[in-house]
Amino acid sequence: TIVLRNVSKIYQTGENRVMALSGVDLTVSKGEILSVMGASGSGKSTMLNILGCLDAVTSGEYVLDGHRVSDLAPNELADIRNRKIGFVFQGFNLLPRTSALENVELPLLYDRSHRIKDPRKEAAAALERVDLGSRLDHIPSQLSGGQQQRVAIARALVTRPAIILADEPTGNLDSRTSLEIMGLFQDLNREGVTILMVTHEPDIASFTERIIEMRDGMVIGDHRVLDR
Amino acid sequence: TIVLRNVSKIYQTGENRVMALSGVDLTVSKGEILSVMGASGSGKSTMLNILGCLDAVTSGEYVLDGHRVSDLAPNELADIRNRKIGFVFQGFNLLPRTSALENVELPLLYDRSHRIKDPRKEAAAALERVDLGSRLDHIPSQLSGGQQQRVAIARALVTRPAIILADEPTGNLDSRTSLEIMGLFQDLNREGVTILMVTHEPDIASFTERIIEMRDGMVIGDHRVLDR
Ligand SMILES: Nc1ncnc2c1ncn2[C@@H]1O[C@H](COP(=O)(O)OP(=O)(O)OP(=O)(O)O)[C@@H](O)[C@H]1O
Ligand SMILES: Nc1ncnc2c1ncn2[C@@H]1O[C@H](COP(=O)(O)OP(=O)(O)OP(=O)(O)O)[C@@H](O)[C@H]1O
Ligand SMILES: [Mg+2]
Ligand SMILES: [Mg+2]
User: Fold this and answer.
1) CB–CB contact A41 B176 (8 Å)
2) Is B198 helix (H, G, I), strand (E, B) or coil?
3) How many angstroms from the chain centroid is the CA of residue A143?
């Protein structure tokens, strides 16, 4: 379970002060699949980064599975990131001089529990799942934009996380490939994985069960998707 | 006028051989506004990179305004890139430690003709045009994904190019911001700028007059958009 209570995030840049999140309250139960939508700059990525323990709140609190995240030690936070949360970044964040296979394998190499016994095999299987089984040895500059995005998706899946946070995972994908990715996310959700996805495409959001709307750093809407 | 005649592009990577383009023929007249659509990996970015003189054909020819591009010297190619063509990259390609303003100003600083007298003022005006006038001093990591994309668009406009090549320019933008960008492209087109845009969103493509469809490195469709 994910709980954000009155979370604000302020970025101070020289004299500029940007309130990226303002008084956000959000509860997400285990096994939900939901979308976050809103205008450019409305705080979607900021919120996802906080949920993924990649950034910290300025004020308010974030409780993940009963633990206040701000009370956790850095190594506990790193463990949570590695084991519980798979993240698909808006900008992909692939290592540029590293093959697709090694990019996907990387989170497993950081997993101190070593619960995945054969990281390379798992990484190859994750790339197969996103239809890139024939491109394992290509580095990002040798892949199209959409292919890079799918490598990023494979990397988010490979640790078998409990929660997937996906920031515009279909932004660079054609309709058919987008539908395949949504099918994959739905399959994972049926297996119990909680999925939060940022998208600006209503068609894509309609694959989820609940839509959170944001504007100017605030949650302004939260409703169930009624016909899917 | 843009003419591609029987253009192929092969990437050779170790033992892998990828035919990114295969026998592409395309003619684009001055003042057209068109979209390029197709599945992930179908060759759209490869074709746009060739048209933008950022990559070379493997075979076939590219004739731009009567000049065979392969006959041009490197400094002539660089001049064409700088003065005639504005490019919006799929991955934005902003300099990460450089402000929005300086990123947009950069192509003007490379323009040896110095036809723009006040580069900084023009760069600020271009950022205003994409509604980022209040963020001139922010570096890319201080901007949202969609804001970075708009900085990339402003950089493509600032040299007042004759041709704009935009690779998924709305992939990270919400619907309303996307419409504003399309309105901007239509305004530019009315002023005579030729616009080629890659998109996978049919709604966005409907703002253009002609749609090129690609599959597996080939042009498989080329039709006019009839009701706009
Ligand atoms: N530098 C490269 N080296 C090897 N292969 C490449 C290179 N650049 C592109 N490719 C391959 O060429 C094919 C076409 O790539 P391209 O980037 O043109 O596709 P695209 O249509 O833009 O796809 P997307 O919609 O995913 O952005 C893909 O299979 C891609 O992996
Ligand atoms: N590191 C930072 N420093 C300063 N401002 C920032 C930083 N990160 C984000 N911002 C600002 O905070 C606001 C929210 O950013 P965020 O990335 O969450 O928006 P978003 O909803 O994801 O937008 P998009 O749809 O364009 O990706 C924006 O105005 C952005 O410029
Ligand atoms: Mg974002
Ligand atoms: Mg592409």
Assistant:
1) no
2) strand
3) 21
* Whether B40 and A138 lie within 8 Å, measured CB to CB: no
Place of tokens 């070379």: B56
Percent residues over pLDDT 90 in chain A: 86
Contact between residue A213 and residue A194 where contact means Cβ atoms under 8 Å apart: no
Supply the pLDDT for residue B3.
98
pLDDT tens, residue by residue, A51-99: 999 999 999 999 999 999 999 999 899 888 888 999 999 989 999 999 9
User: Chain-wide mean pLDDT for chain B?
Assistant: 94
Q: Is the pLDDT of residue B19 over 70?
A: yes
In angstroms, rounded to a whole number, what is the distance separating the alpha carbons of residues B76 and A182?
Answer: 46
> Using CA atoms, how far apart are residues A77 and A56, in angstroms rounded to an integer?
11
**CA distance, residue B40 to nearest chain A CA (Å):** 5
pLDDT reported for residue B115: 83
Give the span between the Cα atoms of B222 and A169, in whole angstroms. 29
Q: Which residues on A lie below 8 Å from B21 (Cβ)?
A: none
CA of A215 to the centre of ligand 3 (A): 12
Chain centroid, CA A149 distance in Å: 12
How far apart CA B176 and CA A181 sit, in angstroms, is 25
Q: Is A171 in the pocket of ligand 2 (CB under 6 A)?
A: no
How far away, in angstroms, is B46 Cα from ligand 1 center?
6
Sequence-separated (6 or more) residues with CB below 8 Å from residue A18? A10, A11, B142
Structure tokens at B94: 């902003």
> Ligand 1: which residue has its CA nearest to atom 31?
A143
Identify which of B37, B40, B150 has the shortest CB distance to residue A177.
B40
Instruction: Give the model's pLDDT for residue B227.
Output: 67
List CB contacts of B131: < 8 A, sequence separation 6 or more.
B150, B177, B180
**Position B82 pLDDT exceeds 90:** no
Q: Give, to the nearest 10 degrees, the angle between helix A175-190 and helix A145-157.
A: 0
Contacts of A53 (CB under 8 A, 6+ apart): A64, A69, A77, A80, A81, A85
Quote the distance between the C-alpha of residue A108 and its chain's center: 17
Contact A156, A85 (CB under 8 A): no
Strand positions, DSSP E, B41-158: 59-64, 67-68, 85-88
- Band (B113; pLDDT cuts 50, 70, 90): confident
3-state secondary structure of B32: coil
DSSP class of residue B91 equals: T
Instruction: Using alpha carbons, select from B183, B171, B188 the residue that is nearest to residue B207.
Output: B183
